[in-house]
Design brief:
Radius of gyration: 32 Å
Shape: globular
Structural class: alpha+beta
């Protein structure tokens, strides 16, 4: 096909040039383009040229809609969507249309015919092809597996129930709509089902331009789309969505509502590609059970990071060439460069003997990053099975699984301690010291191995570990000095570092606390506070947050400030990962998560209710101003009818104590000099501008004549 030009309407110009005139005439006459004033473009000589000349006189804004339609048609004229469309047409449409469709010559003419006469097929091709591209590029994509494959057809899917669950879990106030169809893009024997979830996206405001008028605001709500795929024969759920939390929620919602899987007893698993083994060797052996069927396997392309963000070095060779010398040269080129040498892409060529055929055949597939693969897009089921078997044998595939309810009950106290130390990196022995089971945490992807620490400090001397260390057969590590001389031998767990994944911990906590309703995506209010949903207590729906590190004075003050500055909300509950010095922050009750765990460490909604009601009663008690101190540097000022606020810092706490004592001694005011001390002449200098804005005049007011008191 010719290339699109750089003219005002390049796609439209190319479509008119390449497509059959009769179809172009029908396209230009379509009701969608009545605003162009073309009327009915017949087949008379010169009719199309006249219409095109009229369009060329229009502005780019006026012809935008027809140009977009032409662009979509050109996209679908490519080989992959063209083959997909033929299968859908033969499955869905009448014999008369199928006959005309087969007689239509050229991918562009067939795409144009679909757009004009079979718009539903055109839309289905677009959605299915988009799903394939998401999966193969790995963008916004993730795959999960159920433990036992469950048979399913589109007739079994109760879309209304799935819609309600997704609306609830993602907080889609405008609702959503689910469409399901059989995927006809793969092997004809494929049983894959695709679901499209459509909802209202984030509202957008732009300024609309019209000739002769002042620009005016134009508000609209674009469509937000998610794609879900399920392959019953593999028990695989695939999700395409931009937000990682949405991907996780959509997969689990499908498993619960459509497949009826109890995720507490049968958690979903997932696979990640570990390309590190290709850094050590590019030789690929053939497993014993595939010998005779698989004839040869070769790495024909490898790419590694170059140490500069976004840049890579690549080596390529033919299927019969030896990649080893190229790979060695590639690694040597980046040795010593920070952040370089990580394998980010490999392409593998496989020669095999197809079942029931005499001649050998071959195919290639690519792996990129952690979850990008072209394996699932291979056209034949036999090739997909061979590729998956080879990857498993080469130990490229690492399998992970969410924690079951029983595992979470055992691990939750330790996981909460880890959250206080996230994101890390932290050493393995520190994780074990906190009570963590590294094998279990790795399996759930709560911790991720990041390699050996670069340097360690031993007896006031720095030693290199990282890439320069010597690994012994027993797993220990020999450190070296700056001259590469061997030094002390260290247990691997002392120098092996892990990243603690905050998102995974939060997800596991919420999965265990099933009574917390996730009313949308998690909102990070600060780096230590997340709004995660709501819970119903005594018929009232209250907001729920999770907060960590509240035993740290600065963090506690930060969280308190964040909570008080939110819009008016009903009194809610802050679930603390550890010990909290106060039972209330802002107007909300603080409840340690461990207080909500039953005898078997399982989350208990009744325990949360009891703790919340007790804390609420305490917050409402007392008619005198109080200063609840935790040590010399942290306190909470509680003023009846006004609320409460955290004060951090010894000077601030002492100044507040003077005013509280004076208030409880008869409402006396305290002179500015007593509050500020030497060198300052206003309390704002003591508290700082930001905190003073919250204190004055709600909690502290002027007492007149250079004095200050607790607000009445």
């Amino acid at each position: 096909m010719a290339k699109r030009s750089a003219e005002n309407n390049p796609s439209l110009e190319l479509l008119i040039k390449e497509a059959a005139p009769a179809l172009v005439g029908k396209f230009l006459s379509h009701p969608d383009f009545t605003s162009l004033g073309l009327g009915v473009v017949g087949q008379a000589e010169g009719a199309v040229e006249t219409a095109v000349s009229e369009i060329r006189r229009k502005s780019a804004a006026a012809s935008f809609q027809i140009e977009q339609a032409a662009s979509e048609i050109l996209d679908q004229s490519e080989d992959v969507p063209d083959r997909l469309a033929l299968r859908i047409v033969e499955e869905r449409l009448s014999d008369e249309f199928i006959s005309r469709y087969r007689d239509t010559v050229g991918g562009l003419n067939r795409a144009l015919l679909r757009w004009i006469e079979a718009p539903s097929v055109f839309v289905e091709v677009d959605r299915t092809w988009r799903f394939q591209r998401f999966r193969e590029t790995g963008r916004f994509y993730e795959g999960r597996f159920v433990d036992i494959p469950i048979r399913l057809s589109t007739d079994d899917i109760e879309c209304d129930k799935l819609e309600q669950e997704i609306e609830s879990q993602l907080g889609l106030v405008d609702g959503c709509k689910v469409y399901a169809w059989n995927d006809l893009s793969a092997d004809p024997r494929s049983d894959r089902i695709i679901l499209l979830v459509m909802s209202g996206g984030q509202n957008v405001r732009v300024r609309e331009w019209k000739t002769g008028q002042e620009p005016r605001p134009l508000d609209y709500q674009p469509v937000d789309e998610f794609l879900i795929s399920y392959t019953p024969s593999r028990g695989m759920i695939e999700v395409c969505a931009q937000d990682p939390v949405a991907r996780r929620v959509l997969g689990e919602s499908f498993a619960k509502k459509v497949l009826n899987v109890d995720l507490l007893t049968r958690p979903l698993s997932w696979e990640v590609y570990n390309l590190w083994r290709f850094r050590e060797t590019v030789e690929l052996d053939i497993p014993a059970h595939l010998k005779g069927r698989v004839l040869a396997t070769t790495v024909i392309e490898a790419s590694i990071t170059a140490g500069i963000k976004g840049q890579t070095f690549s080596a390529k060779c033919g299927p019969k060439d030896d990649m080893r010398p190229f790979a060695k040269r590639l690694l040597a080129a980046v040795r010593g460069l920070p952040g370089a040498g990580r394998i980010v892409r490999v392409v593998i060529h496989v020669t095999y003997q197809p079942h029931g055929r005499e001649r050998a055949s071959s195919f290639t597939f690519a792996l990129s990053g952690k979850n990008r693969s072209t394996v699932a897009g291979l056209r034949q089921r036999e090739r997909i099975a061979i590729a998956n078997a080879l990857l498993e044998h080469w130990k490229v595939v690492e399998k992970y699984q969410s924690l079951s309810g029983a595992e979470m009950s055992t691990a939750i106290p330790n996981i909460l301690r880890l959250l206080d130390h996230a994101p890390g990196p932290v050493e393995a022995d520190m994780i074990e010291g906190l009570g963590g089971d590294i094998a279990l945490l790795n399996k759930a992807s709560i911790t991720v191995r990041r390699g050996l620490a670069d340097i360690v400090l031993l007896e006031d001397e720095l030693w290199n570990v990282g890439d320069d260390a010597v690994l012994k057969a027993d797993g220990s590590v020999v450190a070296v000095d700056s001259e590469k001389r061997e030094g002390p031998t260290l247990p691997r767990k002392v120098v092996e570092q892990y990243e603690i994944r905050t998102d995974e911990i939060l997800h596991e906590i919420l999965s265990a606390m099933t009574f917390v309703k996730r009313t949308g995506r998690r909102v990070s209010e600060t780096k230590n506070l997340w709004r995660v949903g709501s819970v119903e207590i005594e018929g009232v729906t209250i907001p729920v947050w999770i907060a960590r590190n509240l035993d740290n004075g600065e963090v506690c003050a930060e969280v308190d400030t964040a909570l008080r500055r939110m819009p008016d909300l009903p009194q809610g509950v802050v679930l603390a990962t550890g010990v909290s010095p106060f039972q209330c922050l802002g107007s909300h009750v603080v409840v340690p998560i461990t207080s909500c765990l039953g005898p078997g460490k399982e989350a208990d909604a009744e325990l949360l209710k009891t703790e919340f009601l007790a804390g609420r009663a305490l917050a409402a008690a007392g008619e005198r101003a109080r200063l609840l101190q935790v040590g010399a540097t942290l306190a909470k000022l509680v003023v009846p009818g006004k609320g409460e606020i955290v004060v951090n810092g010894k000077t601030r706490v002492d100044a507040t104590r003077l005013m509280v004592d004076a208030a409880n001694a008869g409402g006396l005011a305290v002179p500015t000099g007593d509050i500020c001390g030497e060198g300052m002449d206003h309390p704002r200098q003591v508290y700082g501008t930001a905190l003073w804005k919250d204190l004055y005049p709600k909690f502290i007011e002027s007492g007149g004549r250079g004095s200050w008191r607790i607000a009445r």
